Amino acid sequence: MFYPRISQSAFSSYNYCPRLFYLKYIQRIKPPQTQSQTRGSIIHNVIKNFLKNPSKREDLLREYNLLTKDNGNLEKSIVDIGYPLLTLWLKEMYKRGYFSAKILSLEESFERWYKEGFVLVGTPDVVFDMGNEIHIIDWKTQRGVPSEEKIIDNFQFRCYANITDWGKDVVFVAWYFRYNRIYTFFSRCEDKTIFDRRLFELFNGMINGDFHKKTDCKPEECQLGGFCEG
């Protein structure tokens, strides 16, 4: 029997806006990447490499400098924002004790098979064993800071928390990189039965072609940059 592999990103998109899912994953519409998004991708790579081999602040900033130079179309004002953000990230990581914690996974893919006929796939940015609990961290470098209510109800986190048995209480930590500040939000996992029920509902909507519903969001908030309006 064929079990489709569905990413947490796809489930999250459908949960947020079925029309967004249709355009993004069925029609495969991809708007041009902005310079801020390019910088965000570079910051992701710099952090990943630093966590593999922790070194000095100068090395962190040097790699960021090299990667932004390799991408010569980035404006200086866009690039310069990254230096204070990475410096602040380093301080916050030390302060919160992450550099002394064990890394369980670093952009490693997990999957969970459901008897209903699909496989949930997800790739957290990094997972730390903090001793008495697990911290699943996601670096948010490309979008605005949402309300705390939306963070607590974060479907992406619920996918990550339920994709495997972590063996301990799970905490999701979302780090939002904005100009000269980093915002962090913490939320805890809900009961797996409640999550699984919602996941089944979304899967049934996908296979039945229920894509007509659309979230009433502003074009600038749309993940496709307003393409949903078309």
Q: Layout of SSEs?
A:
Layout: E1 5-7, H1 8-16, H2 18-26, H3 35-52, H4 57-70, H5 76-80, H6 82-95, E2 102-106, E3 110-114, E4 118-122, E5 126-129, E6 133-140, H7 148-152, H8 155-162, E7 169-178, E8 181-188, H9 192-207
Helix pairs in contact: 1-2, 1-8, 3-4, 4-6
CATH class wording: Alpha Beta
Spatial strand arrangement across the major sheet: 2-5-6-7-8
Unreliable residue stretches = none
Multimeric status of the protein: single chain
| Number of domain units | 1
CATH architecture descriptor name: Alpha-Beta Complex
Shape: globular
Helix content: 40-55%
DSSP strand content? 15-25%
Question: What is the strand tally?
Answer: 8
Helices, by number, come to: 9
Write down the secondary-structure element order.
EHHHHHHEEEEEHHEEH
CATH fold topology: Lambda Exonuclease, Chain A
For the residues shown, what is the average pLDDT? 84
Which structural class do the helices and strands define? alpha/beta
Distance between the termini: 37 Å
Q: Report the radius of gyration as a whole number of Å.
A: 19 Å
Largest sheet: 5 strands, mixed
What does this entry show, briefly?
The chain is an alpha/beta fold and 230 residues long.
Describe the structure in your own words.
The chain is of the alpha/beta class and 230 residues long. It has a single domain (5-218), classed as Lambda Exonuclease, Chain A, CATH 3.90.320. The protein contains nine helices and eight strands. The chain has helices spanning 8-16, 18-26, 35-52, 57-70, 76-80, 82-95, 148-152, 155-162, 192-207; strands at residues 5-7, 102-106, 110-114, 118-122, 126-129, 133-140, 169-178, 181-188. The strands form two sheets. A five-stranded mixed beta sheet has the order 2-5-6-7-8, with helices on both faces. Strands 1-4-3 form a three-stranded mixed beta sheet. Helix 3 (35-52) crosses helix 4 (57-70) and helix 4 packs antiparallel against helix 6. The termini are far apart. The mean pLDDT is 84.
